[in-house]
Input
Amino acid sequence: MSDTNEDNAGSGDAATNKELAPCNASESGQKRGASKLWCDFEAITAELFQHAPEYSDISDAMDQKNALELELKEANRQNSSLELCLKEQMKMFEERYAEWAKEKNELITEKDGLKSSMAAAKEGEMEEKTKELAALKEKVESMSSAVEKANTESGLTGRERDLYRGQLKEWERYVSQLEDIDLTDVGEKIDRFFYECYNLFHTHFFVDLPMDLLADYLQWEKRVSDLNIPLSFPATNSSNAKGIRVAAALHVLSTHLYTFIFKPCYIPETESDSQTLREILSHQVRTSTGQETHMRALLLFTHPPDQITAAIERTVQATTDSILNRLNLFLPSSSTTTDTFRAKLPVLLHHGVQLWRTMQSSQKMIEVSIDDENFLEWPWSSLDQFGTTIAQPPHPPKFDLLNLFPRFLVPEDSHSVHSGYVLWGDQELAIVADQERTEYLSERRARVVRGFAGAVVGTGLRRERRYSRAGSDEDRRAGSLPSSPTTRRFSFLERDMQRTQVSPIRNAA
Output
């Protein structure tokens, strides 16, 4: 039994060994495979350790990329917010502009209504004065015809002849009061009077104006445009700006001297009557000197001296008020110099009246003009104080010439008593003042655009500084780093604001 068991045990061991033999072979194969895998793992690990710095840089770059993407998303969000803010501000601007346009239209309508009512009133007054002047003209022509008949008709009776002789003697008495004056001396007095005018106006208009007046540029441009003088008025206190204001003041004075002071006679007093008489005398002196002389003598000496003196006082006062009203923009308010000018201007006008009274009593009629058909061909004088003429100005002049003082001429023999003064369009003062105004407008528009853009893009500028940390200026110039998207965006915003903001300013100017 034991033998059997041993045999069985022996047979069992043999069987077991047979079964284990394949297992051992399998385990040996697995060990060889694991050894190979371990060798491959060690090789891969060695290679990873060898390239560890490069993989670390890639990780840092990915982190930086993620951070930049977050910043880009934030910038885009802020850009959207700024665009919404800009749209709201543009909407507010358009609404305010529409209100301004509506107010402007209402003011234009109101002005047209006032203009129509005033025109109707003046038209009635003009018709009445025209009738009176026509009656006076008819009377004068009738008297002139009577003189001709008295000289040409020989069949008059003695009584009629005596009557006409009496009328002729009365007229000759008026004509005899006309004097043969020294025209050269008168010309020198006229020139001294002009420099008296220039000195007074230079003293009181070559001055600094308040900055609050000049700062309100739109109001300044509107008021200088109301002067209707073809000059450029820089809104500054530079020497050129003050010089151009002196020139404008002299032009206003010249037109008032011509219209109110140097007129044919002081009675009648209205401007329309004076202009009509001026045209009649100008026509007569070129067709019949005798008629002009008799008519001028009658107009000058038929009125009592006290009436003429009273008319002169009213004329001087009205002229003073008109000049001050026209030039109050260039006079500093509530200043001693302005009060002095208000006091000295009537004195200056009285000097002009005295000088003109001498010329009125001349046997040869002296004609005054500031523009006529020979305006451009006349040999005008110019002021050295306003610079020389520029042969090739940087841009075409805005005007040919601007009158600063009337000319005086004897039309009977075309003798020039005084050539008058003008500012040429290509004279240095006019050209430089126009350049200064143009440069001022450009700078002002640029400031407006920069100020508006700065208010909108303040946050964007801070974002641009954050981008400057990502690389050097040399890198940006070389193109190795992208420029800030915020900066590129605001360049377009500035162009949009130029189209919407600058254009109305240019139109107002």
User: Anything to note?
Assistant: The first strand starts at residue 367 and ends at 369. The chain has 14 helices and six strands. Strands lie at 367-369, 381-382, 401-405, 407-410, 415-418, 421-424. The two ends are 136 Å apart (CA to CA).
